[in-house]
Specification:
The structure is a homotetramer of 192-residue chains. Chain A has 10 helices and no strands. Chain A has helices at 3-19, 26-33, 37-43, 47-71, 76-93, 95-112, 120-136, 146-158, 160-163, 172-185. By secondary structure, the first copy, chain A, is an all-alpha fold. Chain A has a domain at 54-185: Tetracycline Repressor, domain 2 (Orthogonal Bundle), CATH 1.10.357.10. Chain A binds chain B through residues 20, 22-23, 77, 103, 105-107, 131, 138-142, 144-145, 148-149, 151-152, 154-160, 162-163, 170, 174-175, 178-179, 181-189, and chain B through 20, 22-23, 77, 103, 105-107, 131, 138-142, 144-145, 148-149, 151-152, 154-160, 162-163, 170, 174-175, 178-179, 181-189. The first copy, chain A, binds a DNA duplex (21 and 21 nucleotides) through residues 4, 25-27, 35-43, 46-47.
Chain lengths: 192, 192, 192, 192
DNA sequence: TATGAATGAGCTTTCATTCAT
DNA sequence: AATGAATGAAAGCTCATTCAT
């Protein structure tokens, strides 16, 4: 990938993040790079492809990290802690990309459905495996509905896109610890 | 509010839900009502206002319910259970409106900033109070960051807009019980 | 069809005639009508549809006239004279439309293929019937290839679009007489 | 003319033939040659020039052939037979070029007007001479309008571009015989 | 001889909105 | 209360052409 291509993807990430996919124009993105709109189309073939490119890399990375975790032999508790950490860390490492991914998923699904590795349902599935394993070993409660519980964790984590800003009061490491702890043990005070 | 106005808001909710705010056209909405595009403008002054109208009522209702809960004298545990239940129930009672609210909030903030009662930060604030009360009475853990914890619960609940469909395998009552239980006690198995 | 629609079709015919379909712009056509480009799209749904509309009416009329002639009980000679006359007269009655039809047929075929009545092969077929009848009665030579002979007549007639201008030295009635005579009896001098 | 230049002209002929001048892109043509778009401009100066180059050679050849025929001392009948044959044969020898010539003439006239030798009116003039000679010797009918009769023959012949395909049911030699016979003696059956 | 990169100009089409009736 | 007609503005995208290398 050339430097220009990287610039374009970064610019698109920024503009999609600021304005949303539909409200962002290819003119905006080109201006952000400092090139003409027509030049954009020398590198990409459509605005939709650009959305995909913005999102692809960080997502593949996150999915791969969580896949590693699924396959590792670790207590479920640790797996969950690590997976939440990886998910939240992605917001730090590639904020606008993750924002765009979460916010514009409905616009992307059509494009992503063909790409097996990046499909959101693959991620959902990985998480279900983690929970399944914990239930199997007796580490996790069996009375909770698995898909719904995964959606719950997805919601907790993805919601960061609406409020989290890098360099704010809380870093993602702290947040991950808190969210993992809350998810695993609840927010109720209990006698140690 | 006349019957026509209600029809228009319902139609807009449906279309915004199906296509998203930007992709939805005023023509689509008018067609859904069975009137001409121009007639729409006899009742509303802009597409953006329509977005606001779609979202207002159910949101005000939800905010008011949670405000009641805040003011009630109940154990924090119960308050949290009830508030989560109210939030999820809103998806059943007015799914498209809630969907639009959650998905299009970023497009709305500009409009909502002036309207104190419906501002999302008011809702955030109500929840912080609930948690605060619990911490004060010792019912809830004090080691969790309050704003972040509220965002966590918001995320869990709001994420329903991405997957929940009325009449599916799980109803919102069941879901609310599970989510409240998970949030309060965690998903880890523990000796009763 | 409203007056505006007629104006638009006439304007499109003129502009397509002057510049060709591809080189003509929707702006040109709108300007010719005296409206905005966007207004055009209140009446039509695409530039391609406009091409079809320009061509439809005169073509349907011509096809119907020739169909009448096929069904009439007349000597083949007369049928051929009349059909050539009808074809050339179309250039007088609706010059730009006929020009566009002949010149842009390759661009139209895709659109016309679905519309049975206006398909160019239907016209070709009508003419083959006329010639067939003449061969059957012994009025016409049987040694000529029928399809090729029809194409020959089509070529003679359609070529007018490249040179004929209304109000010029020759009118289509005169031309039709000459072309029919040449086609039927040849251009060789022969002893009466 | 280098080999590359010939390749480019051949590729342009093919692409213009398949898509038409306006719909064909310089990228298409370059791809057909197997070079980059920019490289094209090392050999040619504009797309319009390419159109001219595509058409020039076969046209000059045809014009020259017919000029020879005009100057030969032969019966008019023979001259007409030979000229029609030459014209149709050109479709066999250089189909795409001839196609482009006939179909895109209106786009070319501007370019060709300056080039005396290739101007279509020169060709028209040669044919008028042939017919004139025949009228003068009494071989041809004098009651037909000369220009219109030449246009008639042009139409017959040029129309091949719309339907003739090399290797089809009829070859151009056969066709030329039929067309010449029809033009000279008519399509009416007559007692030998 | 060839090309990667760039662009100005322009294209068709869409859309929220207006307004006279 | 309703709408047919109109439009300004802008969108995504294409293309012939240029030019430094």
């Amino acid at each position: 990938m050339t430097k220009r291509e990287q610039e374009i993807i970064a610019a698109a990430a920024k503009v999609f993040n600021e304005k949303g996919y539909h409200a962002a124009t290819t003119r905006d993105i080109a201006a952000e790079v400092g090139i003409q709109q027509a030049t954009l189309y020398y590198y990409i073939s459509s605005k939709e492809e650009l959305l995909y490119l913005v999102v692809r890399e960080p997502i593949v990375r996150l999915y791969d990290q969580v896949e590693e975790i699924v396959k590792a032999s670790l207590p479920s508790r640790t797996k969950i802690e690590r997976a939440i950490h990886a998910h939240l860390a992605a917001f730090d490492e590639s904020y606008p990309h993750m924002f765009v991914y979460v916010q514009e998923l409905p616009n992307l699904i059509h494009t992503l459905q063909d790409k097996i590795r990046e499909s959101p349902s693959r991620y959902q599935h990985l998480w279900e495996e983690i929970l399944q394993q914990g239930v199997a070993t007796g580490e996790l409660r069996a009375d909770l509905d698995m898909p719904a519980t995964v959606f719950m964790i997805m919601g907790m984590c993805n919601w960061l896109h609406r409020w989290y800003r890098k360099g704010g009061r809380l870093d993602t490491a702290t947040l991950a610890r808190q969210y993992a702890s809350a998810a695993l043990d609840g927010i109720t005070a209990r006698p140690s």
